[in-house]
Amino acid sequence: MAYASAAARVASELRSEIMQGDITPGSRLSQQSTAERFGVSRIPVRDALQILVGEGLVHPVSNATAVVTGMSIAELQELYEMREAIEPLATQIAVPNVGRAEHITMRKQLQIMEEHADTRTWLAANGAFHAAVYERAGRPRMIELVERLRRLTDRYMYVHIEVIGQTEHLVSEHLAILAAVENGDSALAATLTREHLASAHDFILRYLMDGQDSAGTDHFALKASLTS
User: Fold this and answer.
1) Which fold has domain 2-68?
2) Based on the number of CB atoms within 10 Å of its own CB, is 106 exposed (0-12), middle (13-18) or buried (19 or more)?
3) Start-to-end CA span in the chain (Å)
4) I want to staple 17 with a disulfide (CB 3.0 to 4.6 A). Which of 22, 24, 104, 201 is the partner?
5) CATH for 73-227?
6) Orientation angle between helical segments 168-182 and 186-210, nearest 10 degrees
7) Residue pLDDT, tens place only, 150-176
8) Based on C-alpha coordinates, what's the Rg of the chain?
9) CA dist., res. 166 & res. 163, Å (int)
10) What's the half-sphere exposure (Cβ side, CA atoms, 13 Å) at 45?
């Protein structure tokens, strides 16, 4: 139990640092140095790195070392294509089962986002806002996939919020989704969810495209790390 708790803590800290660009793509994370940094043994660090491997944030290069994965246009496209296909479906299935408790949760998370909280808190509230709906779909495998895709996309959303800015559209889109859910309009809520994902996708994609030079070199990871 102690190892599991320590692994979760280490994974959480490393995840945040990777998302925020404090640990940049290509950085090597050794079990030994990471264990020394966090004051734990190598076992929870090994388990923490396995968690991050499963989330696609790092990939192993040896039994004791992992490397932080980069961000790219290809990954962004794939992640959002999958999300735009799955999440509207989850919404449409879930809305008839959403009740007052979920409405309260959504409003609470929306308030947190509207209060200009730090980006980590904003991302957590955003995830909880949408999860309040999705979890009522009764599709555990679908929701597990949605959550994994969201975690992978959060690195890009961090850049949207911290670097690109122009987040006003996110507030209005959340309000529209909330209204549709509260009105029990599953078709409209699904459509708004798809449009919400597509708008974030478009903002970030245009930023990434601006980060490529004429030779096609992707400078996005460098820009993200320098401006985080």
Assistant:
1) Arc Repressor Mutant, subunit A (1.10.10)
2) buried
3) 35
4) 22
5) 1.20.120.530
6) 170
7) 988 988 988 888 777 667 888 899 999
8) 18
9) 9
10) 19
Alpha helices in the chain (DSSP H): 2-19, 31-38, 42-54, 73-94, 100-114, 119-134, 140-159, 168-182, 186-210, 220-227
Give helix 186-210 / helix 140-159 axis angle, nearest 10°. Answer: 40
- Residue 6 is encoded by which pair of tokens? 């320590």
Is the torsion defined by CA of 140, 181, 132, 51 positive or negative? positive
Condensed to tens digits (0 to 9), the pLDDT of residues 36-74 reads 999 999 999 999 999 999 888 899 999 899 999 988 899
User: What is the arrangement of strands in the sheet containing 58-60, beginning at the earlier edge strand?
Assistant: 28-30, 65-68, 58-60
Q: Give the CA angle between residues 196, 197, 203 to the nearest 5°.
A: 95
**Burial of 2 from C-beta contacts in 10 A (0-12 / 13-18 / 19+):** exposed
User: Model's pTM, two decimal places?
Assistant: 0.79
Residue 162, token pair as written in the block? 């911290």
Is residue 217 classed as helix, strand or coil in its secondary structure?
coil
| Amino acid letter for position 130 | H
Single-letter code of the amino acid located at 94? A
